[in-house]
UniProtKB/TrEMBL annotation:
It comes from Chryseobacterium gambrini. Residues 11-223 are annotated as: Phosphopantothenate--cysteine ligase. Residues 6-215 form the DNA/pantothenate metabolism flavoprotein C-terminal domain. Its cofactor is Mg(2+); FMN. It catalyses: N-[(R)-4-phosphopantothenoyl]-L-cysteine + H(+) = (R)-4'-phosphopantetheine + CO2; (R)-4'-phosphopantothenate + L-cysteine + CTP = N-[(R)-4-phosphopantothenoyl]-L-cysteine + CMP + diphosphate + H(+). CTP binds at D100, K110, P126, D127, I128, L129, F144, K158, K162. This is Coenzyme A biosynthesis bifunctional protein CoaBC. GO terms for molecular function: ligase activity.
Amino acid sequence: ETEKTLAGKTVLITAGPTYEAIDPVRFIGNHSSGKMGFSLAEQAAKRGAKVILISGPSAQKINNENIELHKVTSAKEMLSKVLEFYDRTDIGIASAAVADYAPKEIAKEKIKKNDENLTIELVKNPDILKTMGEKKTHQFLVGFALETQNEEENAKGKLEKKNLDMIVLNSLRDEGAGFKNDTNKIKIFTKTGKTEFDLKSKEEVAKDILDFVEEQVLRHNTE
Ligand code: PMT
């Protein structure tokens, strides 16, 4: 039996990819499976938290009655779902791989192939986590950074720019880390420190992240 260290807390987690429609049959997406976010949800629920899990398209399943799963498709839908629950959130964890751009227009009918090349104009999507950072009142906010180069600088930049309390870096340069794998290798940054972890199962990584969050939240509340 897991100790109920998060009893009384509401944890909001974003997970999975977003799909940005091009036409009724096609979309722009990414390789996120949702495993990292669903593992976090499962572990937070085991610790007694009420979990609001907002996920893009994912085949992952949940089996814990403390998890309320809201399925969305696009970044815009994810943002509006997040905002519905944000005021009630104590701890927000953004593990979703949100598409940064979406097609400017969604074609009503399937785009027909012809002999020409096809250009699709993309416009910027809202930054969900940045919006959460701007609206932060009492929430403890955790972001992820998925990088392929200048990993640490980029992660620290996001911590600052998005007004986060901590950020979890995973690099696609590390074997077994990031998308789809059942494992991940992370580094956690706060405003003052850096902690490195070994390659582990996403279940174990989720435990490490929540242990870290709990320690930070405690410190936060006693300062
Ligand atoms: O789902 P899995 O297959 O298990 O893979 C897990 C994962 C690799 C997707 C996960 O561990 C991870 O790194 N998630 C964040 C991916 C990402 O989009 O990172 P980013 O560096 O582009 O974004 C930085 C942060 O801003 C993230 O917390 C992201 O959720 C958030 N963001 C980004 C863009 C946007 N428009 N809105 C956001 O909220």
